[in-house]
Amino acid sequence: MKSLHHPRTIPPHKLEQQNRNKFAMAHRWLQPEAVKTFVRTGFKGYTSTVEGFLAAKSCLLKKSFIVEGEEMVIDPSLVQVSFGNVPLPSNLTAAKAAPNELQITWDAVNKHSEDACDQIMILAYDIENGQANSNITGQFRYVGEDTLYLSPGIPERTYHIYAAFVAADRSCQSASVYLGTVNN
User: How many structural domains are present in the chain?
Assistant: First the structure.
């Protein structure tokens, strides 16, 4: 039989508190709705028992933290927002095309190739303000480019850009790739 809960009488150990802080930072990082939607698709089928948000959080906790002095921080370039074995196209790049407009380009494939109908998934995440824009049903691989519209903002924002591809039948996806930052 389980006993009743009793308040803790001693403060958490330093390493225990660091672990709690790390867990909270990972949870906060994944909170914007556009990020949650993206990782639900990006981590579909991660394991037989874990996928989506929980899989993304697990991956973030394992691979994305760096130590700066006494503190741990999340390095956006180490974060994966998708996991899988669908191949990524070559020369995948992101650039600001116009105000509030992000252009993603890649080497297109033949329209009749096996993976021609894979679709790009794009995530632009302003981590500092907790704002994200995403599209999980982007252009087909054979098109070679796609556009993501960013939220207009009065203060200049820095968006961290991630891209991945999802198979046409939605059965699997690629690992994500970090494409750098864009100021809007």
Answer: 1
Q: How far apart are the first and last CA of the chain?
A: 57
* DSSP code at position 66: E
1 lies in some domain? no
| DSSP secondary structure code for residue 176 in this structure | P
Query: How many alpha carbons lie under 13 Å from residue 152 in its C-beta half-sphere?
Result: 2
Instruction: Check residue 90 and report its DSSP letter.
Output: S
pTM: 0.90
Per residue in 79-93, pLDDT tens?
A: 999 999 999 999 999
CB contact burial 155-179 (16+ within 10 A = b; e otherwise): eebebbbbbbbbbeeeeebbbbbbb
Q: Considering the domain boundaries, does residue 7 fall inside one?
A: no
For the record, the structure tokens of 161 come out as 């850009």
Angle at 51 between CA 169 and CA 140, to 5 degrees: 30
Q: Say whether pLDDT at 3 is over 90.
A: no
